[in-house]
Structure formats: C-alpha cells, structure tokens
Amino acid sequence: MADVFQPGLLRGQHAIITGAGSGINQHIAERFAAQGAAVSIVGRNLERAEAAAATIVARGGQARGHSADVRDFDALARAFAQAVADHGPVDICIAGAAGNFVSDAASMSSNGFRTVIDIDLVGTFNTFRAVLPMLNPEESHLLAISAVQSGMPTAAQAHVCAAKAGIDMLVRTLSIEWAGRGIRCNGIAPGPVADTEGMNRLAPGGSASWDRLLQGIPLQRAGRRDEIADLALFLCSGAARYIHGTVIAIDGGQSNLGSLPFGAMLLESASAR
Ligand code: HXC
Fold first, then answer.
1. Which mutation among 69, 70, 100, 150 tests ligand 1's pocket best, with the greatest number of atoms within 8 A of CB?
2. Longest dimension (CA), the chain
C-alpha cells in the first residue's frame, strides 16, 4: 500500500522511545526514523537497543541505543540526558516498555502482579516525568502504549488490565496538567499484534490458541506492526493537533466483541503449563 504520509514528516525532530529494542516499539522507531526523526532507543538490554539503532543507521537514519530499566527513574533520566546531548530537546516521547505473562490471579504472586504494574504503569509515569524537563518547550508530544486490556477485563491478565487501565487514566490526567506546557498527550491501545514478543508469549502464531484468538476479533485477523506505527505517526504529527488526552483502540474491533474468547483461551493455556 502506498505511504499516505508526507515524506520527511518528522524531519528535524527528536523522538525517544522506550522498549524499542523489539516488537511494536522497534517498528515505530524505524517508521519515525524513515520519516526523518532522530530516534533514541531506550531498552533494558543495551545490545538489543544498539542493534535496533544500527538497523536504522544502516538504512540512512539517525538513531542511538541507550540502556535503562523504566522501573529505575534515575537510570532513565541519565539515558534521556545522553539522548538530549546527542539530538537536542525532545519533541516526541513514547512510553512503550511493557511486561506480560499469562497467569490466573489465584496463581499470581504479589511480586508477579507488582512487577507488571512497575514496568507498565510506574514505568510510563517515570518515562514522562523524567523527560518533562527535556521536552521542546514550544511543542511536544507524549504517547503511551496501552493495550486493549485497559478497558476489556481479560482472564489471566489481571496485572496487565490493572496496569494498562492506570496508564489510560495517567494519559487523561496529564493532558489536563501539562497542556499549558505545549505538551499533547495521548495513548494507543493495540489488540493482538502479530510477530511481537508479547503475542508470542500469549499465543504463538499458527497455534490452536492463535486460531481461537482470531475468532474473537471481528476483522478476523491480528494487527500488523506497521498499522500500529501508522497510528503512532499520525498521533505524533500535526495532522492530530487537536487530539489530546485520549487513548485510541487499534484492535480490529476486538474490544467491542469482548474478551471472553481471548481470556478463555489464555486461562486454558495457563492451566496447561
Ligand atoms: C507466573 C511469573 C511468570 C509467569 C514471572 N512471574 N513470570 N508468575 N507466571 N509466567 C513472576 C515471578 O515468579 C516473580 O514473582 C515476578 O513475576 C517477577 O519475575 P522476574 O522474572 O524476576 O521479573 P523480571 O525479570 O523483571 O521480568 C519481568 C516479566 C518478564 C514481566 C516477568 O516477562 C519480562 O521481562 N517481560 C518483558 C518482555 C515482555 O513481556 N514483553 C511483552 C509485553 S506485551 P516471585 O513471587 O516468584 O518473586 C504487553 C502487551 C500484550 O505487555 C498485549 C496483548 C494483546
């Protein structure tokens, strides 16, 4: 399909993306770099972050990998300061780092629940709070990667549902508090996306559980990484200049149908482990 976006849409802009060493966030980083942004890739694993940056550089883009765990505010602030030294004030910051595993709540330890809350929800707050003094004071955009579970209670996902619901409220609250600083703030809530670490953990492609998962999606297919990246690009572009404080689902209609097919499949796969 032809690219519907104007080439060079993000030329001269600096985007920091957490969790961009793999999956959806890596694809967003590649898309933004191809549109002219200098991209700072922040990940827990430095090798993966650097490899993702090297792929972009090999294609003629600007990127550098940095290591930080989003649960560690000081490490994050240090990584962001390095990124600003490279590419200047931050125009776009995407909080994408996330963790997930399949477990029913009765089998989940307190630490397991807290770990996902810490990575997803506290990690999103840390990301936005750490980048705040480094944002372009004239205009900037914050984007949180939520998930369809934020508004769709899903069995075997109590930790993710709670964390992502918190992220959605954080986005909405920051949109009130930080609008006066020239900051637009939004989120996107993907449903199942093919070829990502998250989905490979929940339902490996081609498996029986994958087939059942697709039955719970009106469009009868999983999302693609390029479709998520297109939405991220739109929201971070001037075309979305009046969209503020909202979380947009991109799920093939899954959240309208409800979580029962997905959750039942996850519960079965959790009890089979
Ligand atoms: C039950 C588990 C578990 C499992 C970990 N735990 N895996 N409990 N079932 N399968 C528990 C551990 O026993 C421990 O509790 C606690 O969680 C912390 O585990 P650690 O391994 O020490 O934590 P850590 O190394 O920080 O790893 C975090 C993680 C891991 C979330 C557990 O899966 C991870 O790093 N994931 C990052 C990559 C990832 O998941 N990406 C996908 C994101 S996709 P105890 O009590 O034993 O100490 C996504 C959206 C999906 O989020 C949307 C789909 C539609």
1. 100
2. 53
Ligand 1 geometric centre to CA of 200 (Å): 14
Distance of CA 262 to the CA centre of its chain: 20
pLDDT per residue over 93-143, tens digit each? 999 999 999 999 999 999 999 999 999 999 999 999 999 999 999 999 999
Q: Decide whether any atom of ligand 1 lies within 6 Å of the 103 Cβ.
A: yes
194: domain CATH number? 3.40.50.720
Which residues does the annotation mark as catalytic?
146, 164
Flag whether 4 is in a domain: no
> Does 116 contact ligand 1 (Cβ within 6 A)?
yes
Tokens of 53: 């940056």
8 assigned to some structural domain: no
pTM for the model stands at 0.95
CA atoms of 190 and 171, how far apart (whole Å): 15
